Amino acid sequence: MKRKHILLLQRTYGANGTNGTITYGGEEICHTIELPDRNNIPRISCIPIGQYKLQKRRYPKHGEQIGIPNVLGREAILIHAANNALKELQGCIAPVTALTGEGIGDYSGKALAKLKALVYSLWDMGDEVYLNIR
After folding, report:
1. Rounded to whole angstroms, how far apart are CA atoms 30 and 81?
2. Residue 119: which pLDDT band, with cuts at 50, 70 and 90?
3. What is the pTM of this model?
4. Rounded to the nearest 5°, which phi and psi values hold at 118?
5. CA-only gyration radius of the chain, Å
6. 38-78 pLDDT, tens per residue?
7. Which residues pair with 5 in a beta bridge?
8. CATH topology assigned to domain 4-133
C-alpha cells in the first residue's frame, strides 16, 4: 500500500514576496520564496493555500523537477531554484537556504538539492508526497 507523506509549507505574506518554511515530520527542510499573493493570477501570484500531490515533471528549461499539478487555474507550477521571486519566478516555488528579504533568499540550488533528495527518496519507495500549504 502506498504511504502518504506530507510536506508542510507555512507562509508569511509580504508586499514584495511570500516567504515560507517547508518542514517534514517536524524537521525543517528549507525556506521558500514565492511571488506576492495576488489572488492566484497566473504568472504574477503565488499559488493558493491547499494540499497538492507532487509529481515528477520534465521541462526543457529546468530539466526534471518536482511539479505541482492540479493548481486551480494554473499550469506548469514547479519547485525550482531561484533567489529572487520578482525577477525569476512566474508562480513557482523556489527553495532557499536562507531568507534575506521578502521573496529573496540565498543558496537556492543547495536547498533544492536537499528537498529533491527527500522527495525522490520517498518516491523511490513507491510512496506519494503531498505539499500542504498553509
Report:
1. 12
2. very high
3. 0.95
4. -65, -55
5. 14
6. 999 999 999 999 999 999 998 777 788 999 999 999 988 99
7. 129
8. L,D-transpeptidase catalytic domain-like (2.40.440)
- pLDDT at residue number 1: 83
- Written as one string, the DSSP assignment of the chain is ---EEEEEEEEEE-SS-EEEEEEETTEEEEEEEE----TT-TTTSPPPSEEEE-EEEEETTTEEEEE----TT----EE---SBHHHH-SS-BEEESEEEETTEEE-HHHHHHHHHHHHHHHHHTT-EEEEEE-
Task: Answer yes or no: are the C-beta atoms of 42 and 56 closer than 8 Å.
Answer: no
Record the cell numbers describing residue 69, joined without a space. 499539478
> 43 vs 2, 55, 114, CA distance in Å?
33, 20, 26
Identify the CA nearest to 56 among candidates 47, 46, 67: 67
Q: How many residues does the chain have?
A: 134
d(CA 82, CA 96): 8
Report how far residue 23's alpha carbon sits from residue 10's, in angstroms, rounded to the nearest whole number. Answer: 8
